Every structure is written in structure tokens, then in C-alpha cells.
From TrEMBL:
Membrane topology according to the record: Multi-pass membrane protein
Signal peptide (UniProt feature, chain positions): none
Keyword Transmembrane helix attributed: yes
Protein name per UniProt: Ureide permease 1-like
Stored PANTHER family: UREIDE PERMEASE 1-RELATED (PTHR31081:SF5), UREIDE PERMEASE 1-RELATED-RELATED (PTHR31081)
Single GO term (MF): transmembrane transporter activity
UniProt entry keywords in alphabetical sequence: ATP-binding, Membrane, Nucleotide-binding, Transmembrane, Transmembrane helix, Transport
Major localisation: membrane
Superkingdom of source: Eukaryota
């Protein structure tokens, strides 16, 4: 099997994982905003997510002089470590499934910030002690503190942006009421162009501009998960649940590959990262398959019913969903490869993925367009703390003996 032995190689894996893990949520959000049912998207995603683990196992898990390789370990008496790996896959699958619904309620950027920060605060602390403190505590924990500050900024951004959207919608309704009752003949002329006029509010002919009230209304009509009139507490509750799930999968994987609790019999080799990732992905796949097939017939959050036949015939956005699964699968694999070499606490630097997700959220979906100055200040502060946090966590990297 192929082993990463240098600190530079481990950091390269982390950076590539950061790009992949920050991009796939944007793709999943894109399909939901275009009206594809999340159950259909997640079923496609989970197929290629497992396929990525299989590809990694039969390539990187087999090449190189290091032993034992992937296939050899499949027949060894290592079921205790396999259980830890599969437990990690289960909690990751639950977290990913929850965030798919949270993105609609809370937004891509803030969802990723809150879940990532919870993951770092809980998961990184657990990994630090599981890894026998190979990471530099004087560097690591200030990085964790930066993530904790960032989650506070993220919650404030969500609250401020929700207030901005509410204000836009109220203003839109008032203007539309005036339009319908009194000024229809004025609005059809080119002379009516004031700051709060039809172009700025999205009433002008053509596609509504991003960030306007009309854009929010168009999005609500088109998207699969309807969020108007629902409490933002629902979204935040789902987000915090996902964050707790995410905080547990990396420590579970750490236990699977390093056997800190000495559950393996004497002489049985520890699971290598590729074998552990294979079992990890199988459990995630099975759970996702069971839950999403159930959600086809008994959907949650007011989604319409579907069927397995309807899923098989739904090719709208299937390619994007497959791509999201590959990116997530390879991203997780790279994170674990880097963590095995430099310490899983340092590898949690990939939880700075909101940097990438926020970029895609603003570029693709127009998040925070035409928001208040307060929202922009909070957003910049949140991103700044994440930049500091990822740099500090990577600087804490150690070397596993």
C-alpha cells in the first residue's frame, strides 16, 4: 500500500481535501435549488461516494512495498477496528444527510461554518488525546478557539441575513401592492427609475436580480425544499445535529486505524487507512440507502412523495449528483491519508471548507447579495477567523511514529 511519510505530503492531501469537501455541498445545493428532490440527489451521491472508496482501496491500498495491503486485511481478524470504522461512516452519513436539508433553511455558507466549527471544537479535542498529543497543543488549541469564534460570527451572519431577507420581502410586498392598485401606468414607462423602484426590487421584466425580493420568491417557487413561513430554528437545530455527527466520525476512524484502546488481538495488524475507509464508506452507503428509500415514500419537511421508479427515471441533475459523491469520497480519503501521517487533529484543518463553500455560495447562488453593511462586516469577520484557524491547525501538524 502507498504510505504518506512526509509532513509536506500530508499538508498537500489536506489542501486538496479542503477543495473537494468545500465544493461538493455547493453542487448538492445547486440541484436542490433547481427543484430536484433531495432524496434522489442523495441516492445518486452515495453511489459514487462508495465508488470513490473502492477505487482508492484497490489502487493506493494495493501499490507500494508497505504491508499489509487492502486485500490481505479483508481476511484478517480485525472486526473490532472494522466496527469503529463503520460507526464513523454511520455518523458521517447522518451528518451529510442532515446538512442537505439545513442548506435550504440556513444557507450553504452558514451551515458549513457552524457544522465545521462544532466538528473542530469537539472532534479535534478528541483526536488530540487519541493521537497521544503528537500535535503541538500551544498551536492547536488557539486554532480551535478561532473556530469557536467563527461559529459565533456565523450565527450572527445567519440572523442578520434573515433580517435582511425579511425586510426585502416586506418592501417587495408594499411596492407590489402600490403597483397593482395605483401606479400600473407609471411602472410601464422608463422614467420611473428610483433607487427602490422596480429594477432594484426585482419587478422589472426578465430574470430577477440576485439578492432582490423577487429573486427570493422565484427561488422559493423553483426549489425542492420550501422554506418560506418556517422557523429558522428548524434549520439551526438540523445544523447543530449535523455538527455533532461530524465531530464524531474522525475520532472513530482514528480508533479504527490506530487501535488506541487495544481491542485487537495480539499480533493482528492495525487497519490501514484504505481498508478502514472502505468499511467506513460501506456503512455510510447502507444507511443512506435505507433512509433515503424510506424518505421517497414517507418524506420529511413537507416534501412531495416519490418512488424508486420515479428516482430511476429522474436524470435531471444526476451527473451533478454523481460528481458531488466523487468529490466527497475522494475528499474524505485524502483527509484520512493526511491525518494518518500528520495527526487527525491537524487534518481537521479541512473543516475550514466553509472558505470554499462560501466562495461557491456567493458566486453560484448570489448569497448575501444586496445585504446590509452589518451582514457584510460579520461575513468578512467569519471568513477571516476561518483563514486564521486553518493556518494555525496546519501549523500544529506533528509526525506519527
Amino acid at each position: 500500500m502507498y504510505m504518506i511519510e512526509s509532513k509536506g505530503g500530508a499538508i498537500s492531501c489536506m489542501l486538496l481535501a479542503l477543495l473537494f469537501l468545500g465544493t461538493w455541498p455547493a453542487i448538492m445545493t445547486l440541484t436542490e435549488r433547481r427543484g430536484r428532490l433531495p432524496q434522489h440527489t442523495y441516492l445518486d451521491y452515495t453511489i459514487t461516494n462508495l465508488l470513490a472508496a473502492v477505487i482508492i482501496a484497490f489502487t493506493l491500498g494495493q501499490i507500494g512495498p508497505s504491508r499489509p495491503n487492502f486485500i490481505t486485511q479483508l481476511s484478517q481478524d480485525n472486526w473490532q477496528s472494522v466496527m469503529f470504522a463503520m460507526a464513523g461512516g454511520i455518523v458521517l452519513s447522518l451528518g451529510n444527510l442532515a446538512t442537505q436539508y439545513a442548506w435550504a433553511f440556513v444557507g450553504l455558507s452558514v451551515t458549513e461554518v457552524i457544522t465545521a466549527s462544532i466538528t473542530v471544537v469537539i472532534g479535534t479535542t478528541l483526536n488530540y488525546f487519541l493521537d497521544d498529543r503528537i500535535n503541538r497543543a500551544e498551536v492547536l488549541f488557539p486554532g480551535v478557539a478561532c473556530f469557536l469564534i467563527a461559529v459565533c460570527f456565523g450565527s450572527a451572519v445567519h440572523k442578520s441575513n434573515a433580517a435582511d431577507n425579511k425586510s426585502k420581502l416586506q418592501g417587495f410586498k408594499r411596492l407590489k401592492k402600490i403597483h397593482n392598485k395605483f401606479f400600473n401606468f407609471v411602472l410601464t414607462t422608463s422614467s420611473f427609475q428610483i433607487e427602490t423602484g422596480p429594477a432594484d426590487s426585482g419587478l422589472a421584466k426578465g430574470k430577477a436580480k440576485e439578492g432582490t425580493a423577487a429573486y427570493l420568491i422565484e427561488l422559493e417557487k423553483q426549489r425542492a425544499i420550501k422554506v418560506f413561513g418556517k422557523s429558522t430554528i428548524i434549520g439551526l437545530a438540523i445544523t447543530f445535529f449535523a455538527g455533532i455527527c461530524f465531530s464524531l466520525f474522525s475520532p472513530a476512524f482514528n480508533l479504527a486505524t490506530n487501535d488506541q484502546w487495544h481491542t485487537l488481538k495480539h499480533g493482528v495488524p492495525k487497519l490501514n487507512v484504505y481498508t478502514a475507509f472502505f468499511y467506513f464508506s460501506i456503512s455510510a452507503f447502507v444507511l443512506a440507502l435505507i433512509l433515503n428509500i424510506r424518505f421517497l415514500y414517507w418524506p420529511i419537511l413537507g416534501l412531495p412523495k416519490s418512488s424508486f421508479k420515479a428516482y430511476l427515471n429522474d436524470w435531471n441533475g444526476r451527473g451533478w449528483s454523481f460528481l458531488a459523491g466523487f468529490l466527497c469520497g475522494f475528499g474524505n480519503g485524502l483527509q484520512f491519508m493526511g491525518g494518518q501521517a500528520a495527526g487527525y487533529a491537524a487534518a481537521d484543518a479541512v473543516q475550514a471548507l466553509p472558505l470554499v463553500s462560501t466562495f461557491w455560495g456567493i458566486l453560484l447562488f448570489g448569497e448575501y447579495r444586496r445585504s446590509s453593511r452589518r451582514t457584510y462586516v460579520l461575513l468578512i469577520s467569519m471568513l477571516f477567523m476561518f483563514i486564521v484557524a486553518v493556518a494555525v491547525l496546519m501549523a500544529s501538524s506533528g509526525h506519527r511514529k
